[in-house]
Design a protein that fits this description.
This protein is of the alpha/beta class. Helix content is about 35%, strand content about 25%. The chain has one domain: 3-Layer(aba) Sandwich (Glutaredoxin), CATH 3.40.30. α2 links the parallel β2 and β3.
Amino acid sequence: MTIVVNDSNFEEVVLKSDLPVMIDFWAEWCGPCRALAPYVAQIATEYEGKALIGKVDVVESPEISGKYGIRNIPALLFFKGGELVKTHVGLAPKATIAKMLDDLL
């Protein structure tokens, strides 16, 4: 299950997580974001207990989006130990996303 992450809970959910975290920065009006959403949901189910998968709506959470320089979406940010370790901007096949997440496990 994906976790809704926003400006108010980002630090607690992402930066303090004991598990690796993948955050999908998206917006409702973004076609490529909607195309990526099923992959993100599937990965969230498949990696339950091994990694946290969250979604940040860039419209509703401009502070955290600005902090990480999100200018294009969809954008996937990968965190481990509270540190940003990898970024991917744009669509990607599910296998590519899973591989990026596997590299953190």
